[in-house]
Amino acid sequence: MLVYMELSMRAGTAPICPYGQAGCHVPTLADLFDRVIQQSSRMHGISSDLHSQFEQYFLPSKNLIGKRKCHTYGILTPDDKENAQRLGREQLTEVILRLLGAWGDPLSQFYQSMSRDQNQDFNHYSSNKAMEISDMVHELRDGVAKMAEKMKLSGVLDNTVSYVSPESFVPFSTVSYYKRGELNPMDHHDLLHCFRRDSNKVKNYLRILKCTTLPGLDC
Amino acid sequence: MKKPSEAVLLLLLLFFTPHAKGTRFSPPGKPALTRCRSPEKETFTCWWEPGPDGGLTTTYALYYRKENSEAVYECPDYHTAGENSCFFNKNDTSIWVNYNITVVATNTLGSTFSDPVDIDVVYIVKPNPPEKLTVTVMEDKGWPFLRVSWEPPHKADTRSGWITLIYELRVKLEGEDDWEMHLAGQQKTFNIFSLRSGGTYHVQVRCKPDHGFWSEWSSTSYIKVPDYFHREKSAWILIMVFTAFIFLILTWLLHMNSHSLKHCILPPVPGPKIRGFDEKLLKNGKSEDIFSALVVSGFPPTMSSNCEDLLVEYLEVYVPDEHELMLEEGKDLHDHCLKSEGSTSDNDSGRGSCDSHTLLMDKCGEAKEQGRQTEQEERPVETQRHQKEWNEDTLPYAHEDTVSPDMSSGRVKTWPSVFCPLPQYSSSPPNHTSSLEIAKQHCLSDSLFPPGSTSSYLTHPGHSTKETLGPSRWEFSLSNKQPRSLHPQMQTRQQLQARSDINLSNVGCEQAPVGLLPPTARPTEYVEVQRVNEEDMVLLKPVASGRGCGDGCPRLRQAEDYSKVKGVNSDHTLLLQREVMGEEAERCPCQDQETNGETDSCITSSTVTTTQKPPACNYTAAAVQDKMAPTVSGYVDTASIFTLPTY
Prior knowledge:
The structure holds 2 protein chains of 2 kinds. Chain A has helices at residues 2-10, 29-57, 81-87, 89-102, 104-116, 123-153, 172-178, 185-213. Chain A is mainly alpha-helical. Chain A is globular. Chain A starts with a helix and ends in a 6-residue tail after the last helix. By secondary structure, chain B is of the alpha+beta class. Among the domains of chain B are: 32-120, Immunoglobulins (Immunoglobulin-like); 131-233, Sandwich (Immunoglobulin-like). Chain B contains 18 helices and 21 strands. Chain B has helices at residues 2-22, 230-256, 258-265, 279-284, 287-294, 322-343, 357-366, 373-392, 421-425, 429-448, 451-455, 464-469, 482-486, 552-559, 584-603, 608-611, 617-625, 638-643; strands spanning 32-37, 44-49, 59-66, 72-74, 85-88, 98-107, 110-113, 117-120, 131-140, 143-151, 165-173, 180-185, 189-192, 200-209, 221-224, 474-476, 527-532, 538-542, 561-570, 574-579, 635-636. In chain B, a hairpin with a 2-residue loop joins strand 9 (131-140) and strand 10. The chains are: A mainly alpha, B alpha+beta. At the A-B interface, helix 2, helix 3 and helix 8 of A face loops of B. Chain B: It is found in: Membrane. Chain B: Residues 368-409, 588-614 are annotated as: Disordered.
């Protein structure tokens, strides 16, 4: 629904029909790709800003990253170009969807935690951004899903891609950790760090997906 | 006992000496990782800065640990990237993985660890500069622009979408210091407009991944823009020059006509000015001078230039036919006389060319050559007649003189224009003839009378002429109307206030139309201007009226009617025409008597007078005989008036 609204906002004068209804403009796959990539890029940018703020104000030490894992570490993601290209379109799409799905709830918690905490100076600015990225994740996931559907329809994608529940890929400890409710600032920082990376992955995977599916000027 | 202390000292020295030397040797200083960079997000390189080596050979080693792994690995390649560097190839590079890198400096004395650095390769991407930068000049509707194109660095794999680069280029003119930046986004071409004609441009481009570092600027590409403004600039230059030229011309015209424009726009306000009024006189304080200055000779305005408009009535003077020649002769003289008279301006100067009677006579003789056939025939007759009459008659001439302003002391002064019509009158041949006649008559009159007496014809009432001639008076009036019939061109101007009604009767004569055919036997009569009355009427009296008139004279006065002014000839001679009223016979005796009297007086004058033809009884006879003869148009010689001395 949100992706629909987002897509309709970008459509211009004609409304967008995700389901191809009559009287509205049906976006092409290229358009969907462009929109999704833009969204992911923007999401990544916001998360980077938040992370840099946290690092500036909060944590001088950089060694904490090594000791704490991101809750999405269970999702196998290609860590270089060859691996990503070797993965194939279907799996790549699946990875994207998993990543996006895995971050929906944690970001909501993060936002709620941010808004609850009144001590910090930059709370207002950060909480708005947290809310933003929280919404973005959901929209992006829906958008990618629709794009995957379209790709399946156009024969680009095999039908092996399935919409998988995100929780199945999250380690229990991390999930429980995040579901504790109360997140200290340390958790905020780790969360942002992890999200920044994952958003970058999403963005990169989407670009690879696009260039392998629709090689054109942008690639 | 001394030996152990000395040994200890030596040992101490030995111990310290190497230590003393060892202060030069120390474990290596702490190295520091300066930077790590990945050009294509597939490999990366780290560089460190070695610390003080401590004097000993120091080796450096780089160790790294990957995220969530305890395994420590050493740098696989120390050489590819140069000195103090570590190069991670593709196999060793993992993206989205945190690297913990440490550099260790080791020498014989120890090793020193640097501070660890955490890096994620994604965030340390600094691509190579774009390659194959090309700049070309292209044209868009006559205006050139630069088309810049480039290619991404060959190592960066943008084709698969692995890395996304955005570009930026900068342009500057040769010789300038400021670059013009243009963000090109993900496109690999760019157009630059607003070029300077004939300029050389430097173009550079660089790139950056969406989250990373800017690359170095590419090598400069030079491009020279051709001169394309000539065609249009020259047209503009021509237009500007032309406009400037027109502007200059307009300015010059305005300057030339500034005066007239000033008069047009801002007409000068006339100030009050009284003619003849001199402020300096006021300052002098002499009222006489002031008022005398106010008295303008030209007021009432009777300018000589307007004299032709003045109608001067000519007293008709009957001239017998034999006198015609004399008249003819006299005309020329009169012309001369008038001309000369016009020059003189003294009051009672009976001088001038006509003053010299001998001269007049000579001129009259010469005037014969002017040639009028009728006159030529009559000339000798006239001369004879004149002589005869001169001898016989007393020249009761009705000397008609036009009013001469110069003659009178004061009154007639205002009537200078009376003479003016005469020149006009002489403009036409008939007028000329009559004017000559008049002139001749006048000359005759001059000859007949002494200069003094003749002068008194006009202005001096009761002068010598009066004494000599008798009290006969004619009203001499100048009217506007009468001359018209005879001399249509003679128009008296309104300025002429004098009105003279010449009531002259032409004894036995009919009115000559133009006075060209005077009665042959008519004697010349001259009317003396007695005075000017209050009504500006010139009162004329016949010159010979007093002589032996007896009873006939009063009647003569009434009978003869010099009421018509023929006109004024060019010589300022008032041409009067006498109308025949009848009673000619009665006048004749008077005339005879007058002429006799006149003859006596005239003889005393110069010989010139002999030529003049007195209006003797021959006139009467001629008048009777020739009723058809037109009235001799007597003329009043204005010139003579000037010359006649006052009495």
